[in-house]
Amino acid sequence: MTTHQAHCLILPYPVQGHINPMLQFSKRLQSKRIKINIALTKSFLKNMKELPTSMSIEAISDGYDDGGRDQAGSFLAYVTRFKEIGSDTLSQLIQKLANSGCPVNCIVYDPFLPWAVEVAKNFGLVSVAFFTQNCAVDNIYYHVHKGVIKLPPTQNDEEILIPGFSSPIEASDVPTFVISPEAERILEMLVNQFSNLDKVDWVLINSFYELEKEVIDWMSKIYPIKTIGPTIPSMYLDKRLHDDKEYGLSIFKPMTNECLNWLNHQPISSVVYVSFGSLAKLEAEQMEELACGLRNSNKNFLWVVRSTEEPKLPKNFIEELKLTSGNNKGLVVSWCPQLQVLEHESIGCFLTHCGWNSTLEAISLGVPMVAMPQWTDQPTNAKFVKDVWEIGVRAKQDEKGIVRREIIEECIKLVMEEEKGKLIRENAKKWLEMLWMKEEVQIKILKNLFPSWLNVRVIKNN
């Protein structure tokens, strides 16, 4: 008889916003002496600027090793081939790890890749679905899967009743997609997350119970759900993992020194931090409105504009900033260490697309928000930020889908100056205090999460 360590294979969908939450959960598992391997696609690994040094990373193939989704040409071609080649190369990886003397016991997979469940069952492994979006959004996709609601809504002014929600929501609050064949395929993938979810052993949600009590209670009647969020580095939460200050994975190189040096010279709570994440692409007209809104707000701002998006900025905008008050008014960077920025005492509010990772980070650090959602889950997140948690405002689009400069200026001033903004700022601090008061963040849940073999060493026959 020999012993080996309990072993989880982590399979994220290969985009940064999906990998980082699963990476953080993996760090928690690893801290409990569980062996971790993270399976990333060869195409994703080629573009990495930074990789976590504490994790074992293995490569699988999505069938497009040179360029991933871009090489595929269409979303349908990508997901079709990923299912075929990914299933095969994931199976080969599991076999390789078994031959190495430390077989996999469990696959924790992103439900964007539901074929992983079949691979797990073929090898007799425990399968665990890890939803990187919040439970409210997952609930909506579940009801689309069941045919209870349709996306997009048929009328822009209709109210939608969703089981598990305490009140109706408007059409503008549900996940949105640009009308195109590609959007249909993306929505199909999101709905298919539930196609075989009844076969899995556990369902993990990157949220925490107090944030979504009603909808979590409702979904828990259908699936074996555990909330394990917020999945951000430990040093911003419970500080149990002393070396866990960063996610450790990025496709962009952050301008850390430039950002923090600039913030260090700004007054407390004076800066608007602006970022739309790693994927969102704003139209040039929207970029101009945003630039003017920031300038007209008369607030200092730190704006993340990816290098591919910079040509959309108004002509001479960056040059003019450098001539204004010694460049103290605003700073534009290609990428930044977002957690360190949100934690900084100079930050007064976060103007955000309301991607779920960014929203969770703001909640975890007590930062009020101005929400400018773009698509997918972001409108639903923005609805909760404004109306349920009351920790921000939503900047409304006009009939062309553009948020105008006057609205942006008004929202920033409301959050940072007005009496209503004072209540929003207080609410943001309350959510921060609630997180600190929790006995644990993720740790206690691990003791009950998986079958007992995860908490002991496993005995295996030679």
Automatic annotation (TrEMBL):
<dbReference type="InterPro" id="IPR002213">
    <property type="entry name" value="UDP_glucos_trans"/>
</dbReference>
<comment type="similarity">
    <text>Belongs to the UDP-glycosyltransferase family.</text>
</comment>
<keyword id="KW-0328">Glycosyltransferase</keyword>
<dbReference type="InterPro" id="IPR035595">
    <property type="entry name" value="UDP_glycos_trans_CS"/>
</dbReference>
<dbReference type="Pfam" id="PF00201">
    <property type="entry name" value="UDPGT"/>
</dbReference>
<keyword id="KW-0808">Transferase</keyword>
<protein>
    <recommendedName>
        <fullName>Glycosyltransferase</fullName>
        <ecNumber>2.4.1.-</ecNumber>
    </recommendedName>
</protein>
<dbReference type="GO" id="GO:0080043">
    <property type="term" value="F:quercetin 3-O-glucosyltransferase activity"/>
</dbReference>
<dbReference type="GO" id="GO:0080044">
    <property type="term" value="F:quercetin 7-O-glucosyltransferase activity"/>
</dbReference>
